[in-house]
Design brief:
Helix content is 29%, strand content 24%. The protein is an alpha/beta fold. Helix 1 packs across helix 7.
């Protein structure tokens, strides 16, 4: 499901010492020679990236990028940036990269470069907690399943014979109908499902995610087109992290 218009926040969060800064030139900081990569995120997308009650940036992507920086030998400067201008800022050199639940697409590859993919944020099936014997969409043949109109989830439901698609203007309305028993399931991207099922007090005891993502919609870290220096640093750290069990730990923490 596509990201919606994002944050009203414009707070800049600083992590670690400031060293060499790619965006806007290079600087040196006393006491360290580690490069600093300035990275934007729209912190309105729990559980991937959001601002907690202590006004701190948290989430899957936040944990991941700090681990990537440690493995890659650089410091991170995270900047909370509204989604509607986040890629324009990248192109303008306001920051070096974007980590913000960015799906890798052929269209986006025309205007920016991407790290290795780090998470399949594909579609998952959400049902009520008391539902048994349901593992796939096909198990709901003869029943209605909801999705936000025009999304990948709606398209996937239409592919399954016997399953009735019910569309909604907002995914929250579909989740509410599922909770109240008006539909049998909801298909939505994995992070959004986790937000409703794990983070939302209203639904986390009423709903569950069954199975794993059944489409491939991979997230990557976007880098300004042609910025090989920043991409090399990020990719080197990311590939090291992906070779460990940390990604699975983050999925358990934030998405399961």
């Amino acid at each position: 499901m596509k990201r919606l218009i994002g944050s009203l926040f414009a707070v800049v969060f600083f992590v670690g010492a400031v060293g060499m800064l790619f965006a806007g030139g290079q600087k040196e900081a006393s006491g360290t020679s580690l490069p600093v990569v300035k990275i934007a995120t729209d912190a309105t997308w729990p559980p991937m990236e959001f601002v907690d009650t202590n006004k701190q940036l948290v989430g899957f992507d936040v944990d991941l990028i700090h681990a990537v920086a440690k493995a890659g030998g650089f410091k991170v400067e995270l900047q909370n940036t509204a989604w509607d201008g986040i890629f324009a800022g990248l192109a303008n050199g306001d920051y070096d990269a974007v980590i913000s639940s960015v799906t890798i697409t052929d269209e986006r590859k025309q205007s920016m470069d991407f790290s290795a993919p780090y998470l399949n944020a594909g579609q998952v099936l959400v049902v009520r907690s008391d539902e048994s014997g349901v593992a796939t969409l096909a198990d709901l043949a003869g029943k209605s399943v909801g999705a936000q109109i025009g999304t990948t989830g709606a398209m996937e439901i239409q592919k399954v014979p016997g399953v009735k698609l019910r569309t909604y203007d907002e995914i929250g309305l579909a989740v509410e109908d599922l909770s109240n028993g008006r539909i049998a399931g909801v298909v939505v991207d994995n992070p959004t499902a986790a937000n409703y099922v794990l983070q939302n007090d209203t639904y986390k005891h009423k709903l569950k995610i069954v199975g794993k993502p059944f489409t491939e919609e991979y997230y990557g870290i976007a880098v300004r087109k042609g910025d090989a220096k920043a991409l090399k640093l990020i990719d080197a750290g990311l590939k090291k992290v992906l070779s460990t069990d940390l990604p699975a730990q983050l999925e358990s923490k934030w998405l399961r």
